Amino acid sequence: PMSSRRRHHGSRENPVANKCLGIFGLSLYTTERQLHHLFSKYGPLAKVQVVLDAKTGRSRGFSFIYFEHTEDAAEAKEQCTGMEIDGRRIRVDFSITERAHTPTPGIYMGRPTYSGSGRRGGGGYGGGGGGGSSGSSSSRHGGGGYSGGRRGRSPSPYHRNDRGPPPRRSYSHRSRSKSYSPRRYSRY
DNA sequence: GTTGAGCGTT
């Protein structure tokens, strides 16, 4: 008989209980703060993570919520699935993938996006060569000291434009103070 | 203010 716990990963339809909840069907305007506010009612949260799109930086419509205790996660799952946030009915389940992708340095973090049709021969890594670690720390010069920028030569496949960035030709509306999610204005 | 099915980057 089974006397020991066998760690089943569970399928998407049958996720095994764990401290991490996946929230799906979110509105793109729902913030981590909202989620934290809602889910913290069922127990202490360790982390709330809304998954953002790599390109646009906006929400992808789902998020992961880490509880401190699995039991609280279970409670929240039962209570919150089907509830409505910002007009979208959300679905709550135990996460099947417990953690995000391991941040692997040296491998570009973009999807294999192909720049439309016509880019011949190009595609892919194009001899990024350094792929591994050789190209990583080579971008430090004696100057700044901060190696965060993607300046210099990076083997990024994103060079879709050599002309350089188009000049910002306007002093006009700098990001308008568009408040944070003014839900809806009741118009009387 | 894009709609939607969706298990993930630092």
Which descriptors apply to this entry?
188 residues; single chain; 2 helices; four-stranded antiparallel beta sheet; RNA-binding; alpha+beta; 6 strands; transmembrane helix; DNA-binding; two-stranded antiparallel ribbon; transmembrane
Low-confidence blocks of residues: 109-181, 184-188
Q: SSE string, helix = H, strand = E? A: EHEEHEEE
Q: How much of the residues is beta strand, in percent?
A: 15-25%
Q: Which strand order do you get reading across the main beta sheet?
A: 2-3-1-6
Distance between termini?
67 Å
Summarize the biggest pleated sheet.
Answer: 4 strands, antiparallel
The shape is globular
How many distinct helices?
2
Number of strands: 6
Mean pLDDT: 67
Radius of gyration: 22 Å
**Which range best describes the helical content: under 10%, 10-25%, 25-40%, 40-55%, 55-70% or over 70%?**
10-25%
What is the structural class?
alpha+beta
Keywords: Membrane, RNA-binding, Transmembrane, Transmembrane helix
Protein name: RRM domain-containing protein
GO molecular function: RNA binding
Organism: Meganyctiphanes norvegica (Northern krill)
Walk me through the topology:
Elements: E1 20-24, H1 32-39, E2 45-52, E3 59-67, H2 70-80, E4 84-85, E5 88-89, E6 91-94
Antiparallel strand pairs: 1-3, 1-6, 2-3, 4-5
The structure holds one DNA strand of 10 nucleotides.
GO molecular function: RNA binding
Keywords: Membrane, RNA-binding, Transmembrane, Transmembrane helix
Protein name: RRM domain-containing protein
